[in-house]
Amino acid sequence: MPPTASSIRRFLTAKARRGVHTAVHRGWEWVQRQGEITPHTHGRRKFAYLGEGACIGFPVGAIYGEPWISIGNHTLVGTHVTISAGFVPGLDLGPDVIVSIGSSCSLGRGTHIVGHQSIEIGDDVFTGPNVYITDQNHSYGDLDTPIGRQWPENNPVVIGDGCWIGTGAIILPGTRLGRNVAVAGGAVVRGEFPDHSVIGGVPAKVLRSHDPESGWDPPLRNHPLISLDELAALSVDGLEGLQLLQDKLREEAG
Fold first, then answer.
1. For labeling, which of 169, 188, 224, 241 is most exposed (least CB within 10 Å)?
2. GO molecular function of the protein, one example (predicted)?
3. Paired strand residues for 100
């Protein structure tokens, strides 16, 4: 039975839709690549420093105050990430860098880093998506003035090398995280926390800590699949290394 006119139309319509779909997605991938900010694009010139191998994904969030923002080598900034220094673009914020992000960091999609005095993020810091970090808070001491109109208070933030900050965590002014601190998703963090600790909650508190002599308290539930040296080696092997890690996790699971 020969095809009918209606079946031919349906076939051609479906084919056209597939073509449009492919064109849209390929076009968007091209736009994303062209919109990235790297040391080899014009946008790099605005920053106090944008290191070799660094990349800010496109679409970007609100990025302004670039002359007071430093981003280290090989740091990857996800899409829709806001990094700002000062209240609005165009202000003179003085001689010093206000937002300093170290080398080999990874900032998850939708993260906000809002600096006014000093936010210092060390090397090898990773965040999940939608993390919020700020060194400024509203004051509320004047009972007769709306809080949003009262003079804000600044307090520097320091995040040590190797920290992991989970999805949706909020890092408030005055926070100082030591080296290799794990922050649970959704935590609201303020205060000082020691090296090699796990913190979480609202407000955040220490959930697990490490002593050089007695180890982890409370103890870890299971042993790592591979040593830290092996993990570091896999991380520089690109996709092949990640596939080996995925295979090890699958093997452990079952």
1. 224
2. O-acyltransferase activity
3. 70, 120
The model's pLDDT over 38-90, given as tens digits with 9 standing for 90+, comes to: 999 988 889 999 999 999 999 999 999 999 999 999 999 999 999 999 999 98
The answer to whether residues 157 and 120 touch, using CB atoms and an 8 Å cutoff, is: yes
Joined together, the tokens standing for residue 64 give 């302004």
Contact call for residues 55 and 40 (beta carbons, < 8 A): no
What is the model's pTM? 0.86
In 3-state terms the chain splits into helix, strand, coil percentages (rounded to 5) of 25, 25, 50
Q: Among 57, 105, 117, which residue's Cα sits nearest to residue 81?
A: 57
CA 171/CA 134 separation, integer angstroms: 6
Contact 55, 35 (CB under 8 A): no
CA distance 40 to 55: 10
Tokens of residue 151, six digits: 């003079």
In 3D space, the residue among 163, 157, 219 whose CA is nearest the CA of residue 192 turns out to be: 157
DSSP 8-class letter at 3:
P
d(CA 156, CA 56): 24
